[in-house]
Design a protein that fits this description.
The protein is α/β, with parallel strands linked by helices. The protein contains twelve helices and eight strands. Helices cover about 50% and strands about 10% of the residues. The chain has an eight-stranded parallel beta sheet. Strand 7, helix 8 and strand 8 form a beta-alpha-beta unit.
Length: about 300
């Protein structure tokens, strides 16, 4: 029987939460806080989770920690949500992580962009094909940040690998996204706006039916209000949410997104939900910016 991945495709057309990875005072993953934050997302009606995403500080975690984060998530979530595990680095490491996710019962993997100074377009296809073919039972979602990649290359990957079912597209150019999606095959893939709420309205109009979110860790209802407005065609309503989250996301995006994770953890710390600790090359917010973040978080219905 051919796998259709319909439930996984449905899960991608939604708010795709990227949970933070909280750290304890000794620097290790705070397992209790991690579980509590996951429960908070689930209780907030979030149904798609990406452990080991960028908001989870994927690149600062050791291989053992990435395995632990996956295990904690699968165990805590159970059947309450669909799990899309972030994998990456070299091909053997990504394949091992994908197989580990499969063994635990995760339904999909998201493949982080290849970390290499020299990425050819055909090599990009080869990289993702090697991972997808290693786990044919799982839905596979490439994470695209490379503005030079063409839609034709994704079409090539999709033709070779039926389990490549969705795309997290994170190039900050709505017109480029629209062209890329159509060149790649349109409805062949589920399109997820990979730059979160600020880009969700413009990308939704060009074919994205889901968006990723780090903000959802802080205020699940705000992110859900955005997706519900977009689904109903209420663009004025979506833009009201956009205005509500604008300053928070500007702080995250400043200085080349230097504080992307830092701002989210600062907001969570202000609510007493986890420590503000982040790992280098990220850094905690200076004292004079913490109050602004806390004020924004306090103003949301969380």
């Amino acid at each position: 029987m051919t796998t259709t991945f319909e439930s996984q495709r449905t899960a991608l057309a939604d708010v795709v939460a990227i949970p933070v990875t909280p750290f304890a005072e000794d620097g290790r993953v705070d397992q209790d806080a991690h579980r509590a934050l996951l429960r908070r997302l689930l209780d907030g009606r979030v149904t798609t989770l990406t452990p080991n995403g960028n908001t989870g500080e994927f690149y600062t975690l050791t291989p053992e920690e990435r395995r632990l984060v996956t295990e904690l998530t699968v165990d805590e979530v159970g059947d309450r949500a669909t799990i899309l595990v972030g994998v990456g680095h070299d091909v053997p490491s990504a394949v091992a992580s994908a197989r580990h996710a499969r063994e635990l019962g995760a339904q999909m993997v998201m493949v982080h962009q290849p970390v290499h100074p020299y990425v050819s377009q055909s090599g990009w296809v080869d990289y993702h094909r090697a991972i997808a073919e290693a786990v044919p039972e799982l839905g596979v979602v490439p994470y695209i940040r490379n503005a030079q990649l063409t839609g034709a290359r994704l079409a090539e990957l999709g033709a070779a690998c039926p389990n490549v079912i969705g795309v997290k597209y994170a190039v900050p150019d709505a017109a480029r996204f629209a062209a890329f999606a159509r060149d790649a095959g349109g409805d062949r893939f589920v399109w997820v706006a990979g730059l979160a709420e600020p880009y969700a309205p413009s990308y939704f109009s060009a074919g994205a039916t889901g968006f990723t979110s780090g903000l959802v860790n802080v205020a699940p209802s705000v992110s859900l209000n955005m997706i519900e407005a977009l689904r109903s065609g209420d663009y004025p309503g979506a833009m009201k949410v956009w205005e509500q989250i604008r300053r928070f996301e500007e702080l995250r995006a400043a200085n080349g997104s230097a504080n992307n994770v830092t701002v989210v953890k600062e907001a969570l710390a202000s609510l007493g939900l986890c420590r503000r600790d982040v790992r280098p090359p990220s850094r905690e917010l200076p004292e004079d910016e913490r109050a602004e973040v806390a004020g924004i978080a306090a103003g949301w219905s969380v």
